[in-house]
Design a protein that fits this description.
Length: 332
């Protein structure tokens, strides 16, 4: 700032007023300062300024997601950015890769940057290690998965209810041989979706022991292999419920490879771009990551602004979207 002031021939306070877009500076002086800052490639230190003016806030939050490359995570990231940018708050996003040790190390990195709040998708069995930060009033909102060992706001989908909707839909279309393809069993949402699915199957009088179940399918390829194994078995399912978008992608590939995409019904959990353009269109239980992101931003900002209400869990309802794949009936 001193270098800019010297080059522009003004005082440091004048440079500060111009860079912070404050009044009381003539247009000619403003132009000289901006030209000097451009020549020197000077940028205002937002963090330092915010620490002085805003109660030591850095105008930043840390966002921990399963993987920023996953479409569901990406939509949440974008919704949060859109909502928080209106307050001048930047979002630092990182991928968890569902690794408990990575969870703690990334949170430590966020804290080292003095973020004003955290939005976390946890994988560790217990998040009580965050209590020291929580007790000093650092706002935290857990997203997609509820925390264990710490009281904090959470914004989640109705995972069990959504999976039950998928099972009920396939049952209503005549299927009794429905396979379940699931994510890792140490992930809270995967366990909830399996529970909702099997409970609905049980209500229809189908014993859970007769349901083909393949779990710990955490990427497209493992899901593809599991689906091929089921579909080429002696007693193949007539319908599949895939409980996560990457699992759905692998299942779709398997059905296409075997030429069964119009013979075997499919309902996936998570909507995705171009699902309506597949052959047939993919029926899904749609979460609403945009709504989850907006609701999360609302709760985080409320906590930053001093909201002291007891923590609670906010549930964003899922939605069954019929596009064709889930409406295929079993062979006569």
């Amino acid at each position: 700032m001193r270098h800019v002031a010297t080059l522009a021939g003004v005082g440091i306070k004048t440079v500060s007023r111009v860079m912070n877009e404050e009044a009381g500076v003539s247009e000619a002086t403003r132009t000289k300062v901006l030209e000097a800052s451009r020549q020197l490639n000077y940028q205002l230190d937002v963090t330092a300024g915010s620490l002085r003016r805003a109660g030591r806030r850095t105008l930043s939050v840390g966002l921990l997601l399963p993987s920023v490359s996953n479409p569901f995570s990406g939509e949440i990231n974008r919704a949060l950015e859109d909502a928080l940018s209106a307050r001048g708050i930047a979002v630092f996003a990182a991928s968890l890769d569902d690794d408990p040790q990575r969870e703690q190390s990334i949170i430590a990195a966020f804290l080292g940057r003095r973020v004003d709040g955290l939005v976390l998708t946890p994988i560790a069995k217990n998040q009580s290690y965050t209590i020291p930060e929580h007790s000093r009033d650092l706002p935290m909102v857990f997203i997609d998965r509820e925390p264990v060992g710490v009281d904090a706001d959470a914004v989640v989908t109705d995972n069990a209810i959504g999976a039950a909707k998928a099972a009920a839909h396939l049952l209503a279309h005549g299927h009794t041989k429905i396979a379940y393809l699931g994510d890792r069993t140490d992930i809270q949402t995967a366990r909830e979706r399996k529970r909702g699915f099997l409970e609905e199957i049980g209500r229809a009088g189908i014993p859970s022991s007769s349901v083909p179940i393949r779990e710990n399918l955490h990427d497209e390829e493992t899901a593809r292999q599991a689906a091929i194994e089921l579909l080429t078995s002696e007693n193949p399912p007539t319908a599949i419920f895939s409980s996560q978008n990457l699992v759905t992608f692998g299942t779709m590939r398997a059905l296409k490879e075997l030429g069964k995409n119009r013979e075997v019904a499919l309902v996936g959990f998570d909507d995705f771009t171009l699902a309506d353009m597949m052959d047939p269109g993919v029926t899904v239980i749609a979460q609403h990551p945009d709504r989850i992101g907006v609701r999360t931003a609302e709760r985080l900002l409320a906590r930053i602004d001093g909201d002291q209400e007891p923590p609670r869990t906010y549930v964003v309802p899922s939605e069954l979207i019929q596009r064709g794949s889930g409406e295929i009936r079993p062979p006569a």
